[in-house]
Amino acid sequence: MSRHSALNIELSAFDDLFETDESRADLKRERIFDIPVCDIQDFPGHPYKVLDDERMTELIESIKNHGLLQPVLVRPIENDKYEMVSGHRRKRAFELAGIETIPCRVQEMTLEEAIITMVESNCYRETILPSEKAKAYKMRLDAMNRQGRRTDLTSTPTVSKSRSNEVFADSVGESREQIRRYIRLNNLTPELLELVDEGRMKLRPAVEISYLTEDEQRDLLDAIDETEATPSHAQAIRMRKLSADGNLTTETISSIMCEEKPNQKEKPMFRDKRIAEAIPKNIPPENHSDYVLKAVEFYNRHLQRKREDRGR
Description:
The chain is an alpha/beta fold. It has helices spanning 3-17, 21-28, 54-66, 88-97, 111-122, 130-148, 164-172, 176-184, 190-197, 203-209, 214-227, 233-244, 250-257, 273-278, 288-311; strands at residues 31-36, 40-41, 72-76, 82-86, 101-106. A five-stranded mixed sheet has the order 1-5-3-4-2.
């Protein structure tokens, strides 16, 4: 290597080491560009579901009529591509609408910074499923802990690992214990986690169940299907203790789940929540079937009259 080349390398390393706060801050400043949708990758492990539902249809119509009111946030990655940080629903709407480019705020950020920003930008949404909170909270807490361990010359830890969960709790408006509960849900099988999302199993019993082995959880799911009931908090605590002692068998799970629970004496007549929610609150549970049957008969008569009117 020539002396001139060696000097260039040394000067380059020297300049990087003593880069000013202002120049580093300039890299962090966001810029707005129209970027091809195909050049934007989804965030790895994005915890929030993007559904092609009625709200998506409304978003597409709004974009077609008024444009995108708030640009998405992306960070540059290798090969002239970008990674979505905040705006997965808006990107999906552009894809469905057939619009090739999307307005983007482009900002340099580390993986940890991107995770924290992603979770923060979604934590005040109107509806967040327990499974989404479980994944998002774990991703963010892990990122904060990694930040706390950084010791390189260009970064100062924003918070020590011992205080990460305190800072996190304050930022999302949840108690430390509630955050711990949500993170425990990541240990549930997908089928049991879905029951929590549907509201059929409450958070606290679900947390206790998360300590069961995968095989025990699958046995419990079978028992839930058979009894059409989910465990109470007290039953879940008992199963967790039996599991820890190595005494939780399939028969024990079935026996516990066959016990009558005060909060489930009246089993829901209809498993589809839409039917249950459509029945007026003043109709007693024992009359729900009669009410639905009469409603169906009334609707059938209505359809019959419409057919007769068209035939005249």
